[in-house]
């Protein structure tokens, strides 16, 4: 199997991390694993190289497919365009080497995700080498995707969808159902230890030990629901004056963080909202929380839900995208319709005021993650897809 990810710079989303978990957990006696990825520098390795370089049994093929955004590269000054033109030669050399390697070593599966350049390259490499191509879709298919992604999906021998929501988007686009395979995302449960770090985080942010806290972990972009959480906080502070909202995540839309800060001031909760930016200690922040909330719209899966569940937290969100596939309403969390901020506030108030219900839901969430959403289970399901597509069942 040859996995292809040629990104040189972060951010690259959760997909490559999930692929690395799959590669780590595949049976090395049954799979010969190769990864084609960019190099980066000694100080800052390319994202995929940093994830797979230490996985036993994985052979890394360092590849140069040029800048991450070729359209930007070919725009601008004449000198920049000339430099970009010269870059075509190492790109072509890398592509030919990979196609030759795949053919010579009888690669059965060329595997990648929906990133446009990698999907196109993988489809062509598979076609030239006689291998099968599998594309892993981490987002719902939509008209906003490039024509090269659409072309690649039409020719892929297998497509992995991370949720029924993503699968339906592909069916709606006319992808043959026999080529679609459902493999839910997963996490390494052992990395998430409930309660560890709770006191230290509360001290850092000046939060009293008994103050009710709910947290969201997401990219700071519209559609993830951080704005609705601020509005919901404004509706519950009368009954829960000590309530705090922690928002963890890096700004990806310029000015969006400032808009959240302005909204918190407008609602009158600026002293109760903590924007942390990107953090490496997400598990500790979740340990310091009483509930997790991410009222995302059109969520393709929601790894953050699994992480919160693994930390024994109940989850609050909207019935949108694949959220209801991960969160069992009334069992592991509480869901309301999209845009129902009052319902969101009611659910948060209920959970923050009821430790027993939080504990019951949180423990059930942890149990579900341990039995349904682990990295070994994800790897086994992905391996079954590879065998089916390669005709090795």
CATH superfamily membership of the largest domain, which one? Glycogen Phosphorylase B
* Number of domains as seen in the coordinates: 2
- Summed up, the helix count is 17
Rg computed from alpha carbons, rounded to a whole number of angstroms: 22 Å
Identify the CATH class of the largest domain.
Alpha Beta
Largest beta sheet, briefly?
7 strands, parallel
Beta-strand segment tally = 13
Judging by the overall fold, what is the CATH architecture of the largest domain? Answer: 3-Layer(aba) Sandwich
**Mean pLDDT level:** 92
The helical percent reads: 40-55%
CATH topology of the largest domain: Rossmann fold
Strand content: 5-15%
The unreliable regions are none
Features of the shown structure:
elongated; 2 domains; 44% helix; six-stranded parallel beta sheet; Rossmann fold; 393 residues; 13 strands
Question: Can you describe what's shown?
Answer:
The chain is an alpha/beta fold. It folds into two domains: 201 residues, Rossmann fold, CATH 3.40.50; 184 residues, Rossmann fold. Helices cover 44% and strands 15% of the residues. It has a seven-stranded parallel sheet, with helices on both faces. A six-stranded parallel sheet has the order 10-9-8-11-12-13, with helices on both faces. Strand 4, helix 6 and strand 5 form a beta-alpha-beta unit. The longest helix has 18 residues. It is elongated, with a radius of gyration of 22 Å. The relative contact order is 0.11. The mean pLDDT is 92.
